[in-house]
Design a protein that fits this description.
The protein contains five helices and three strands. By secondary structure, it is of the alpha+beta class. Helix 3 links the parallel strand 2 and strand 3. Helix 1 packs antiparallel against helix 2 and helix 4 packs antiparallel against helix 5. The chain starts with a helix and ends in a 7-residue tail after the last helix.
Length: 149
């Protein structure tokens, strides 16, 4: 089941302020959808068309860093917005954080030790009096890259 503007228009009818609001929201959603292909990745995931007020298109970014990149692209985006039928002459960029929780940074991949380091780890494990520590050293040494032949 769809919960978009059409369903709301059906509920509220095609007259009145609610219908006008839904029609405007649908137009902005369409313009936003048409604008996305002109935004480079990953900026397209951090930016949205928030409004068109008079001759100003208001674009929202979810952080100051993305807003800065969006401001830089503004002059290239303006002709696209004009092509879409909105008589805009300028772009305003605002920061509008989303409710999304920040994602954890990707786990840092620890490189495998060299063959020489693996030999040193094995020697250290052989002379260690702590069995669990020696076991950890052996497992780490086992991750060594195979020697080049």
């Amino acid at each position: 089941m769809s919960y978009g503007p059409r369903l709301l228009l059906r509920h509220f009818g095609h007259k009145g302020e609610a219908a006008d609001l839904m029609t405007r929201a649908a137009a902005l959603a369409l313009l936003n959808q048409r604008l996305r292909p002109y935004l480079p990745e990953p900026l397209d995931q951090h930016c949205t068309l928030a409004n068109v007020r008079g001759q100003t298109a208001i674009l929202a970014a979810d952080s100051p860093g993305w807003a800065s990149r969006l401001r830089y692209l503004g002059p290239a985006l303006l002709p696209r917005l004009v092509e879409f039928g909105f008589g805009v002459t300028r772009i305003e960029v605002i920061v509008m954080p989303t409710d999304r929780q920040p994602t954890a940074p990707p786990a840092r991949r620890i490189p495998a030790p060299s063959a020489e380091a693996a030999r040193s780890l094995e020697q250290l494990a052989a002379h260690s009096s702590d069995a669990s520590f020696a076991d950890v050293l052996r497992r780490l040494a086992a991750r060594a890259k195979a020697p080049m032949r």
